Amino acid sequence: MTHFMSINLPKAIGHRGAAAYAPENTLESIATAADQGAKWVELDVKLTRDEVPILFHDDILDRTTNGSGAVAETDYADISSLEAGSWFGESFAGIQIPTLEEALEVIILHDLGLNLEIKPCPGREKETAEAALDVLTQIWDEPENILISSFQHVSRETARDVAQDWNRGLLIGGQSPDEIPDNWRELADYLDVKTMNIGSKILTNDFAMDIIDEGYPLLVYTVNQPDEARRMQQMGVDSIITDAPDIILENILTTH
Ligand code: G3P
Ligand code: MG
C-alpha cells in the first residue's frame, strides 16, 4: 500500500496557467497565474517526436502556434522555433512552447504547486508518462505540492508504477452526468489516487457527496464564473481549476 504525502491543495488552480489572460501552457501564462495570486497551476504535458516533454494541449500544432501538423511527428528542434503567442493576442507575439523542464524552473521561481496532466498523443501513453515523470523526479522536491493526473488509463497506470509516492488524482470529464463511470470507486482504488479531479459538467450534488463520503479531496475544472464557483464550493469542492484565477479568488471563500 502506498503512503501518500499530504497535499497542500489551494482553493484555486490556474488552468493551463491563466488561460483567460495569456497563451495557455506557456511560461507567461504560468507567471500570470502567479501574479494573480494562484498558488498552483494545472499544465498539460506531451512529447515531441524525439520524446522531449513539452507543455502543450492539442495533438496538433495548428490552433495555438504558427506551425501545423502532429506534435508526435515534429522534432523538438522544429517545435522550439514555432511562435505560440500571436494566436492569443499580438502583445504575446514571439512566445515559444516551453519544455517541461523550463516550465518547472518558472513554477519553482514563483513558488507554485503543480497539477501536471499527462496528455499523451495517441499511442504514446506509456512513454509520455515515463518521460514527464523522469524530468519531474529530477527537479521537483516538494511532494505535497504536486498532483499527477491523466485521462488516459495507461498513463495513469504508468504514473502509479513509476511515481508511487507522489499524489495522483483521478481525472474524469464529460459533457453530462450520465458519463460518470459506474466503477469510479474501483478505478480510484486500483490507481491508488489521492484526489478526484472532476469536470464541472458531470459534477452533481450526489456525485460530490459520494466523493466526499469516500474521503477524497475534490477538484473541479474548468470554472470561470463567480456564481458557478460559489455553487461548487457549496457542493463541497476543495479546489477550483480556472482560466481566471483573479476572478475566482475574488469570489470564493478562501478561509476555512
Ligand atoms: O486537468 C483538468 C483539465 O485540464 C482537463 O481538461 O482538456 O483542459 O486538459 P483539458
Ligand atoms: Mg489539462
User: In DSSP terms, counting alpha (H) and pi (I) runs of 4 or more, how many helices?
Assistant: 9
Q: Helicity, in percent?
A: 25-40%
Shape: globular
- Strand residue percentage: 15-25%
Characterise this structure.
The chain is of the alpha/beta class and 256 residues long. The chain contains nine helices and nine strands. It has one domain: Alpha-Beta Barrel (TIM Barrel). 32% of the residues lie in helices and 17% in strands. Strands 1, 2, 3, 4, 5, 6, 7, 8 and 9 form a nine-stranded mixed beta sheet that branches. Strand 1 (12-15), helix 1 (27-35) and strand 2 form a beta-alpha-beta unit. Helix 3 runs parallel beside helix 4 (125-139) and helix 4 packs parallel to helix 5 (153-162). The longest helix has 15 residues, at 125-139. The two termini are 30 Å apart. The mean pLDDT is 96. The structure holds SN-glycerol-3-phosphate and magnesium ion. Magnesium ion binds next to strand 2.
Which features would summarize this protein structure in a list?
256 residues; TIM Barrel; 9 helices; binds SN-glycerol-3-phosphate; binds magnesium ion
Summed up, what is this model?
The chain has helices at about 25-35, 75-80, 100-110, 125-140, 155-160, 185-190, 205-215, 225-235, 245-250, and strands spanning about 10-15, 40-45, 55, 115-120, 145-150, 170, 195-200, 220, 240.
Topology:
Layout: E1 12-15, H1 27-35, E2 40-47, E3 53-55, H2 76-79, H3 100-109, E4 113-118, H4 125-139, E5 146-150, H5 153-162, E6 169-172, H6 184-191, E7 195-199, H7 205-213, E8 218-221, H8 226-234, E9 239-242, H9 245-251
Parallel strand pairs: 1-2, 1-9, 2-4, 4-5, 6-7, 7-8, 8-9
Antiparallel strand pairs: 2-3
The protein binds SN-glycerol-3-phosphate and magnesium ion.
